[in-house]
Write a structure and sequence with these properties.
The chain has about 425 residues and is α+β, with helices and mostly antiparallel strands. Among the domains are: about 140 residues, no CATH class; about 150 residues, no CATH class. Helix content is about 60%, strand content about 10%. The protein has 16 helices and 8 strands. The chain has a 5-stranded antiparallel beta sheet. The protein has a 3-stranded antiparallel beta sheet with strand order 6-8-7. Helix 5 packs antiparallel against helix 6. It starts with a helix and ends with a helix.
């Protein structure tokens, strides 16, 4: 590199003598000479940068790196090669400084400082782009696709910016690096206030990753923020959630730690999604069954075997206790609601879309002003929303249509037409 300095000293001498030959004043010739040398170094730097960039890029693209090829292609896509090529003109400029400012020695030190600052900034930029390439490659791997890689990238950027700032501070002030940390100690309260969200987000990102609380692609609900959808991005300070209406809600990363939220990942991983819905049966429609009713219900194929088993069980119970059957209140007797529950249990057991290895039941809830709630509690074999809604709709279509066959009435609020019919009668 000493040859570069010698070349520029020679060029400086030649151009300076040429300017003097034009009858310029010495001071004017010196200043104009510096301007010409700076213009020359920038032109040469631009040419060197383009040539080196083309050569390095073509070389990287033509070489076969085997398994490392995707990584090197990522380096090219993130312009790591281009930024590395930018360093060569800066290094040449660093060595050309003495030749450029030969007549103004007092400017050599400030020029060195400026060039060093540029080199530090460019080197930090190269490291950022290298880490970006690493995260791009990691994002293609199945094990890392749902990880908050963007937050890691931001942490690295913050650390590199901090190191860059410290080194520039040391260059400009001429003080040791440790003096910067001393100054920061005095400003810690201000820094904590300014970077509060960043610090909280950094801590939250570590906790979220360590505890595996949220992954990219998870379906989460955060009612406080009106968020209900899939996580599409996790950064150091924010989490982006794409709601099911395709709007995007942005919430602070720290809210995943400080506030409660629902993550539906467990449901997806289990392979079954719960149906928990009820209809209300009018209490006045519930009654004991007569023998003639039993004959009619035996014709229902799904109910036949279960009905026979239940009838035998009740008959043996009443016979063992010598129950007087004159009144249905004596002993045990079947009701239309009980038989309806039995029918629905058999119906759900044979329905293909339901998970038979998870909880499946038809139960009564506490009666209320709308009647007796009859709840279906089952799990579907799919977690896909569209298929889940279709299965649930099919079940309750059948439940509503089947209830009248058991002489049961489903409660619903009266409409204007119902009231009109009532008053006519």
């Amino acid at each position: 590199m000493t040859n570069i300095s010698s070349i520029f000293e020679y060029l400086h001498k030649v151009t300076y003598n040429f300017l003097l030959s034009l009858n310029l004043e010495k001071n004017d010739a010196k200043l104009l000479n510096i301007f010409l040398m700076i213009l020359l170094i920038f032109c040469l730097s631009w040419i060197i940068d383009k040539v080196v960039n083309i050569v390095l890029t073509k070389s990287f693209q033509s070489l076969k790196f085997g398994k490392l090829r995707p990584f090197f292609l990522a380096l090219i896509n993130n312009k790591v090669v281009r930024k590395t090529a930018n360093l060569i003109p800066l290094i040449a400029l660093y060595n050309a400084v003495p030749g450029i400012f030969k007549h103004y020695k007092q400017l050599v030190t400030p020029a060195y400082t400026v060039v060093n600052i540029l080199i530090i900034i460019f080197v930090a930029g190269i490291f950022k782009r290298v880490f970006r390439s690493v995260t791009d490659i990691a994002a293609t791997k199945p094990g890392y696709r749902d990880k908050p890689l963007e937050s890691y990238q931001q942490v690295v950027n913050i650390l590199l910016n901090f190191i860059t700032l410290v080194l520039i501070f040391s260059l400009v002030t001429g003080k040791e690096v440790w003096s910067f940390f001393t100054a920061m100690g005095a400003m810690s309260a201000v820094l904590m206030l300014v970077f509060k969200d960043t610090i909280l987000g950094f801590v939250a990102s570590i906790q979220v990753t360590t505890n595996d609380m949220v992954r990219i692609g998870d379906w989460v609900e955060m009612p406080k923020y009106g968020a209900d959808g899939d996580v599409i991005e996790i950064t150091l300070t924010t989490v982006k959630i794409q709601n099911f209406d395709k709007t995007i809600t942005t919430v602070p990363t720290y809210s995943l730690i400080s506030d409660s939220f629902r993550n539906w990942r467990g449901m997806k991983e289990s392979g079954g999604r719960r149906i928990k819905r009820s209809i209300s049966i009018k209490m006045s429609s519930v009654r004991f069954l007569q023998p003639s009713d039993l004959e009619r219900f035996r014709q229902i194929e799904l109910l036949g075997p279960a009905l026979e088993k239940k009838a035998i069980e009740i008959e043996e119970y009443n016979k063992a206790r010598n129950i007087n059957k004159a009144l249905p209140l004596n002993g045990r007797h079947m009701t239309n609601l009980g038989l309806f529950r039995l029918y629905l249990t058999e119906y759900l057991r044979q329905l293909p879309g339901l998970h038979q290895h998870m909880t499946s039941m038809v139960r009564q809830l506490a009666p209320n002003e709308k009647g007796i709630p009859l709840e279906i509690y089952v799990f579907t074999v799919t977690t896909v929303w569209l298929e889940y809604e279709g299965i649930m709709a099919d079940i309750f279509d059948h439940v509503i249509a089947a209830a009248p066959y058991f002489d049961l009435e489903i409660f619903e609020e009266p409409t204007g037409r119902d009231l009109g019919t009532f008053f006519k009668n």
